[in-house]
């Protein structure tokens, strides 16, 4: 195995061992001539040896300064020192490998964390994109729904407008129809009223004529009845007449009789009043209706001029 600086491993190890042997001799001598000092742990020495950087120049053993002659080191101690150096070297190598593995683990952990972060960032981006996509979809749906609602609103408004116009048209037509119908009915009613009035007038005229004839006949009967009950006074003369007011009830019964216009002869007047009182009742009056009775017989005016006095 060749090192990066071009020296082979055996040469490097030989140089290191040579330096270590010199340092060991110096150390032993110092221990013999100085008070005991706590030795450094073997692993610290191993680290110093292992971490000593190599140079591009050939290693040259540093000559120690001239020292006073000292006793030769013990072979057992040298062997023990060598064993310690070997152990330190192995320990340094093991720690080196451990550091390498730790570095690999650290880098692997960093790579894992980086990958996790990247994965998390990717998921965050994807979630964000998904949310943005969902948001756009919702916005698009909201826009379409708004357009749909606006369209429905316009349709409803248009329908409402048409319905209003149709309703107004129907109302106008219905109003005109009712007006025409009312005018027609009014015309028909007016015509019917005219016809009814004519018929009523005719009927009233007929009834009036009939009643007039009947009244005239009843008045004639009453006059004749009064004449039948009249006794001629000695003072009666031709052409004399008296006007009497006779009050009756619907049955024809006389309830009162008075003179409204005298004949000029009180005896003649009293004779006429006594003739009515003797008659007492005129049953023919019951033949007329209430209207005719009230008009002609409730309070009847009778002109009394006996036939035998007529001039």
Blueprint (SSEs and pairs):
Layout: H1 9-33, H2 42-51, H3 75-229, E1 242-248, E2 254-261, H4 266-279, H5 290-297, E3 299-304
Antiparallel strand pairs: 1-2, 1-3
Helix pairs in contact: 1-3, 2-3, 3-4
Question: Can you walk through the features of this model?
Answer:
With 311 residues, the chain is mostly helical. It contains five helices and three strands; from the N terminus they run H-H-H-E-E-H-H-E. Strand 1 and strand 2 (254-261) form a beta hairpin. The chain is rod-shaped, with a radius of gyration of 82 Å.
Short description:
By secondary structure, the chain is mainly alpha-helical. It is 68% helix and 7% strand. It is rod-shaped and about 225 Å long.
Essential attributes:
single chain, 311 residues, mainly alpha, three-stranded antiparallel sheet, Fusion Protein Consisting Of Minor Coat Protein, Glycine Rich Linker, Tola, And A His Tag, Chain: A, Domain 2, Cell envelope integrity protein TolA, 68% helix
- N-to-C order of helices and strands: HHHEEHHE
The CATH C-level name of the domain at 206-304 is Alpha Beta
Please give the largest β-sheet.
3 strands, antiparallel
Q: Considering DSSP H and I runs of 4 or more, what fraction of the residues is helical?
A: 55-70%
Q: Distance between termini?
A: 198 Å
Shape: rod-shaped
Which class of secondary structure composition applies to the elements? mainly alpha
Strand element count: 3
How many alpha or pi helices? 5
Give me the Rg, rounded.
82 Å
Q: Order of strands across the biggest sheet?
A: 2-1-3
Percentage of residues in DSSP E strands? 5-15%
Question: Based on the structure given, which CATH architecture of the domain at 206-304 is correct?
Answer: 2-Layer Sandwich
Task: Look at the structure and give the mean pLDDT.
Answer: 83
Poorly predicted spans: 36-41, 43-55
Q: Which fold name corresponds to the CATH topology of the domain at 206-304?
A: Fusion Protein Consisting Of Minor Coat Protein, Glycine Rich Linker, Tola, And A His Tag, Chain: A, Domain 2
